[in-house]
Design brief:
- Strands 4-3-5-2-6-7-1-8 form an eight-stranded mixed sheet, with helices on both faces. A six-stranded parallel sheet has the order 9-16-13-10-12-11, sandwiched between helices.
- About 40% of the residues lie in helices and about 20% in strands.
- The radius of gyration is 23 Å and the shape is globular.
- It has three domains: about 170 residues, Rossmann fold, CATH 3.40.50; about 170 residues, 3-Layer(aba) Sandwich (Rossmann fold); about 110 residues, Four Helix Bundle (Hemerythrin (Met), subunit A) (Up-down Bundle).
- The longest helix is centred in the N-terminal third of the chain and has 16 residues.
- Helix 2 packs across helix 3, helix 14 packs across helix 15 and helix 15 runs antiparallel to helix 16.
- It is built from 18 helices and 16 strands.
Length: about 475
Amino acid sequence: MNDYPINQILDEFLDIMQKHSRCIVSAAPGAGKTTVLPLHLLDAPWRKGKILILEPRRLAVYAAASRLAENLGCNLGERIGYRMRFETCVSRTTEVELITEGILTRMIQNDPELSGISAVIFDEYHERSLHGDTGLALAVDVQNNLRPDLKIIVMSATLDVQRLQNLLDAPVVISEGRRYPVTISQQEQPSRLPLAEQTAGVIIRAMEAQTGSLLVFLPGEGAIRKTAGLLKEKLPHNTLLFELYGRLDKNSQRAAIAPPPPGKRKVVLATSIAETSLTIEDVRIVIDSGLTRRQIFSPATGMNRLETVPISRAAADQRAGRAGRLEPGVCYRLWTAADEKNMPEFTAPEISCCDLTPLVLELAAWGVNSASELCWLDPPPPAHWAQATEFLMQLGALDHDGRITENGRKILASGLEPRLGLLLHAGFKIGLPRLAAQLAALLSEFDSRAGDNPDIRFLLDELRHD
């Protein structure tokens, strides 16, 4: 761990953590913040319990935990463990536990004092997921009212540091260095080709011009499948092709980030799942479409819909950083300098553009009826909050004073979006739990399953035969 740029600010960081309860760490991709800093907190005099590290995605949890365990010379589940929905790898000896962001909310709801926890680290906070913002708001509330000794650390490569510092009143540590340099190559003119054809062409040219493996960012599964179909007959014989996205099974995901066999190169076609906290072995070339799929709230329907949108400049920097993790790299961007001027500087927080129904129900269980009672970098939009509250009252999850009902607690306990939680609960009440569970599973991933046939009966039959 001696060659990470983050080591240059290590003493300053440890001194701040000894004297303060909060800290903000801004460090370039590949600087080593996730890999180095948590392990150096293990010997801190103030640490009496576990260190929790929040990651935005399941794959990032597993990858970061694996690397920390390797650096500490232990097996996963011993001193380094992880926890995510449906998968836990911890023991009584676990000192650092990596978790997905939603797990922290459940932990706080079940144990408001976070007993046995000394520090909570919010890694890659720039992604600004709804779970991440909720977790930070609740953790600060716990620290302010129940656990003044709890340490809170917020880390990212592309933070809006000044705004976050104003919110948390916390010292900032900045690591300027990137582990290896990355050369950026940009399109001179916009391409008229469909995205899959444009991407496949750039991949072939990059493989001819560069050495090493490739990580290719595409907006979703559809674009990945189309690009993979165009590449299968064109890639050199020594090249392995992998897909990487959220719905992929965990073994296929882990195979995509594993080192290639000797003498082989690989091409990984990925969504934004590979944007942060991952080191994909042998990758020194990144190809970036500049697009992603995001949940956008529709006031007309009261629900989220998936839209393909341009990424922010901060996200583009994150993606380029994947090429400089292990050696000097190159990033091919499939947009022009003129396009870049129209890209937002930072990724819009989910809380500003997605359905707030799950958030309002979660906070009602915490005893909060107004968003203003908690600490937010970006407060929930009042109109979205009011619409979510009204809808939860219609579901019977909140009473007329905005307090959570017994029905609301059962919906929350399901771990599903409130509409689907109510569906599951109703299915049990009328004696059709299996059908309700199948429908809830189907509707939870309807956008990716529907394709050209949105008939619910056809999709339900297809699900039963999977």
